[in-house]
TrEMBL record:
The keyword Transmembrane applies. Residues 21-201 form the Ketoreductase domain. This is SDR family oxidoreductase. The keyword Magnesium does not apply. It comes from the Bacteria. It comes from Pelagicoccus mobilis. CDD domains: SDR_c. Keywords: Membrane, Oxidoreductase, Transmembrane, Transmembrane helix.
Length: 263
């Protein structure tokens, strides 16, 4: 049995604080990833945003200000994962929390989805995350402290048409969470997943503008009868990374307004 001294709060009033933590967020330059970075930053963490688009990363860190930085990296270039991990440790000395948020989406009928398209979704959402975890987790194990988060989806919990590859990739996250948590938790590294419901983002707003009937259908089956905000996901990530969740591992945390249990 281990006692993670670094995660123990000084007082009960700061149990949700991430002060002193180094949080690495993939896909952190926009959307939900940016919101997670923002909430973790507000909770006191030093956040490091990872992504392919330097312009988006630079803008996001400029908005965050102090205690934020970025590294340009394409997680599908799995052969460079070790190099990225070494850079993170060299720059910050440790990684307390890794958020596997980077991902791509494909909306297409299942029988029209090509093998190449399927592979592309898996490379980013699954294989890229695995490579980064394999590179970073050993340093967490050595310190006997760390948190790994996946950003999954409602598509991993129930059937949604025309997202076969995406659903398969996000469902894979849940298997990864369960296996990784059984292997890593004895070493002080917790592994959890957040499954966002329908969140009001720039991407979803554009999609709903062209399909108002879909928006109404989503709201009709969501008990809270509204879309979530990116910060709803961000604050869930703060909780799972904090000392408040020190006995939480292997979980899938829906942030969905009740959609996963709605009728």
């Amino acid at each position: 049995m281990y006692i993670d001294e670094q995660s123990k709060p000084e007082t009960s009033t700061n149990v949700f604080s991430l002060s002193g933590q180094i949080a690495v967020i993939t896909g952190g330059g926009s959307g939900i990833g940016q919101a997670i970075a923002g909430c973790m930053h507000k909770a006191g963490a030093q956040v490091v945003l990872i992504g392919r688009r330097e312009d988006a990363l630079a803008k996001a860190t400029e908005e965050l200000g102090d205690r934020s930085s970025y590294l340009v990296h394409d997680i599908t270039e799995t052969q460079k994962s070790e190099q990225l991990a070494e850079r993170l440790i060299a720059d910050w000395g440790k990684v307390d929390c890794l958020v596997n948020n980077a991902g791509i989406h494909l909306k297409k009928p299942a029988l029209d989805t090509s093998v190449d398209e399927f592979n592309s979704i898996l490379e980013t959402n699954v294989l890229g995350a695995h490579a980064l975890i394999s590179a970073i987790a050993p340093s967490m194990i050595k310190r006997k402290s760390g948190s790994i988060l996946f950003v999954s989806s409602m598509a991993s919990l129930f059937g949604i048409p025309q997202v076969l590859a995406y659903s398969a990739a996000k469902s894979a996250h849940l298997g990864m969470v369960r296996t990784l948590s059984t292997e890593l938790s004895p070493h002080g590294v917790r592994v959890n997943s957040i499954a966002p419901g329908w969140i009001e983002t720039e991407m979803s707003s554009k999609a709903f503008a062209n399909d108002p009937a879909r928006r109404e259908k989503i709201l009709s089956r969501t008990p809270m009868q509204k879309l979530g905000s990116p910060d709803d996901v961000g604050w869930a990530a703060v909780y799972l990374a904090s000392a408040a969740a020190s006995f939480v591992t292997g979980t899938v945390f829906p942030v969905d307004g009740g959609a996963s249990i709605g009728f």
